[in-house]
Amino acid sequence: MEPCGVIFDVDDTMYDQLKPFDDTLSRFFGPDHSVDGEALFRRTRHYSDTLWNDYAAGSLRLEEVRRLRIIHACRDFGLDLAEEEADRFQAEYEQAQRRIAPFEEVPRLLGDLRRNGYLVGIITNGPVKHQRDKIDRLGLSRFVEERHILVSDELDFAKPDSRIFDVYRARVGLPAERLIYVGDNWVNDIAPSIEAGWRAIWFNHRHKAPESNHKPLAEIDSIDRIRDYL
Questions:
Q1: Which helix (DSSP H) or strand (DSSP E) does residue 151 occupy?
Q2: How many CA atoms lie within 13 A of 60 on its CB side?
Q3: pLDDT at 1
Q4: 0.90 exceeded by the pTM?
């Protein structure tokens, strides 16, 4: 078999990013809150992606991005948070994130890929220490070599800039057509990896609609179904 790489996103691809968010909502607003957790979570992801450009350009600090994303998202649902409340929400969210675990199928899948000769890697957006701590907490370091992990803050750009896939391809020394990217986010993961010449598998476990005319190799709702396309 020619060398081939299967490269993964982390957040909401390797673990359920909604669970620590839901746990935080319950602690913050009380267990009987009426907030639609998934809808609010999607809005925070939207604002996080939007504000990330300002962070990457140096006009916002990371703590400001985290504060503003929950303030803006809550405002869309008629909830007004003061800055200190947003900071408290973020602190509780970070505590909940320390208890994350990978999707049940992930360890066996990654182990099988390694045993079958695939290069297994990670491309993830975020601060280097934060994302690498998360990778360790999820146990992914057992399956992914250090040199095959790329965190966006190592560079001057992040997904959805397709250059991050070009940088990764050059690092691992494989042609784009031998690389598959697996991610949950259409804008950040699927569209730019395809534009970089990679094949993409959309892990669409949130059952969203495509946001462009890009054609992934597959759309799956269980991550172990990757096996069907290798």
A1: strand 149-151
A2: 17
A3: 60
A4: no
Domain C-terminal end among 97, 120, 140: 97
Q: How far apart are CA 187 and CA 84, in angstroms?
A: 31
Distance (Å, whole) CA 73 – CA 6: 33
* Residue with token string 């896939």: 165
pLDDT tens digits for range 119-159: 999 999 999 999 999 999 999 999 999 999 999 999 989 99
Structure tokens at 204: 């669409």
156 burial (CB, 10 Å; 0-12 / 13-18 / 19+) is exposed
Last residue of a domain, one of 44, 77, 97: 97
Low-confidence ranges of the chain (pLDDT < 70): 1
User: Domain of 148: which CATH number?
Assistant: 3.40.50.1000
Q: Whole-angstrom Cα distance, residue 154 to residue 61?
A: 16
Q: Could you give the 3-state DSSP secondary structure of residue 47?
A: helix
Of 179, 184, 224, nearest in space to 202 by CA: 184
Residue pair 226/207 in contact (Cβ under 8 Å)? The answer is no
Using CA atoms in the order 104, 189, 53, 141, what is the torsion angle rounded to 10 degrees? 40
